[in-house]
Amino acid sequence: MPGIKTAVSIEKSLFEKAEKLAHDMNVSRSKLFSLAINEYLKKQENYLLLAQLNSVYGEDQIQEEEDLFKSHQDNHKNIVEREKW
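Below the sequence we write its predicted structure tokens.
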């Protein structure tokens, strides 16, 4: 996929650290920034997915399930008690 040129402004100290890391990794600065942005986007997608899962399986849902379980336990107990020999 062809790259798109862009210009960003960052602090000098961050630039220098990125420059050193790119050199140490033997990749271009552009490749390093692409890798970093890609990793950041994956992390954000994971946070969003976690938030969605938490909303589905949150504490309210757990309480509803516990109430339902308790209700089934009580029903089962009543059935067993009625069928005692």
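Residues 12-82 form one domain.
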